[in-house]
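[SOLVED] Need 3D model of a two-part complex

Original post:
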Amino acid sequence: MARSINQIVRSHAAPAASRSAIQNAYGGALPNFRNLGILLRILLSVNAVALLAVIVKSPTLTGLGAPLMEVTALVEPLLLLVLVALYVLNGLLARLSYSTGAMVVMGITLASTTALYFSTRGYLPIEMSGIGRYWLLVGLVTAMLLCYFDLRGRALSPALSEARLQALQARIRPHFLFNSINAVLSLIRQEPKRAETALEDMAELFRVLMADNRELTPLKREVELCRQYLNLEQLRLGERLQVEWHIDNMPADALIPPLVLQPLLENAVYHGIEPRTERGIVSINIYASRDEVHAVLRNPYAMTGNHHAGNKMALGNIRERLQLHFDAEASLTSRVTDDAYQVHIVLPYRREKTA
Amino acid sequence: MTPPVLRVAIVDDEAPARSRLRDLLADCAEQQPLEIVGEADSGADALELVSAQPTDVVLLDIRMPGMDGIETAQHLRKFDNPPLVIFTRPTMPTH
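Solution:
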């Protein structure tokens, strides 16, 4: 019996699918061209290069205006054309290997340059040189940006931030251990069956808490974990804790960092339900919108004031982990509305790779 | 000679905690005759209970919503026959 449990635990601990998924989280190397942060970075850096070129060429600061206009007239249409092309082709690019993808990106920019060069030549009141010069310029800037995104991807890749993630993980301490053990103790004599269920929930929770949590996990597993956690809290708090799940449209296969939702629910119970004498509702709303996964958690909010440091730390921890996994594509915002506290998480919708 | 019956009140906002304390008191009953005079799930109810029922010992949870255990104990101390207060739960370290 003990052996079979051990085997179950082991087979759960290292699902091959999620392991390959984490490697792919960086494996793309090409940035996601549909991400606003990435688009902004490209826009800003290209314009910065253009401005730099104008400043270098212009002898006086006051004479910057006219050449800047000229450069802008050349750069912006190309930039927009390329960004639109990359946006449209993003799905295709993500499927290519990095080197092929980078070459395709280079090809797109050079092709756009050529197209614009021949379609606008003569219409613009600007003296244009031969196309070779533009190819060189555009090619260099593109290569520069590709190198930048590659380095950035490496710097942020989970492989390199493993130590960081490990440190963050260690900080999540289940403060409800004590409470849960007491709740189970109180059940053992009168309701041994429920005590057994509760201990099973606890065992599962602690298995996840002690596991290596640097890899992404399917959303449905995290939700299951949350249910087990809330079951335990409900033992203790009874009617006072009401839970509303809105997960009919949940993308169950979406990959998320483990223990992102559970600590937030712990917060919701600790700050929103425990300080209240009357019953309170914790609501969990998870849905997919386009290629994003949204999770909105709400709980009643009472002005108690003294718990806030702990709350901020938990939020900071989760935010940092989201950033390490998804960079600018993920966000965590919290706000107080009327008498409720709300946390809203947005993640890119990454699916578990099959086979 | 048997020791006098100790009148005990149990105060905790969480039902499982109260039930656990009942179990533990039942275990002690052989050495020390006990009578549970009542249970309360809030500080306010506790004060009402103790003022209605003569009580020797109050097992009091510190962390309760509304009036917490410390505040309840301060009120209990002002009673004519203040009961002995035993806090039943160490304060949890904030996480």
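Edit: The longest helix of chain B spans residues 15-28.
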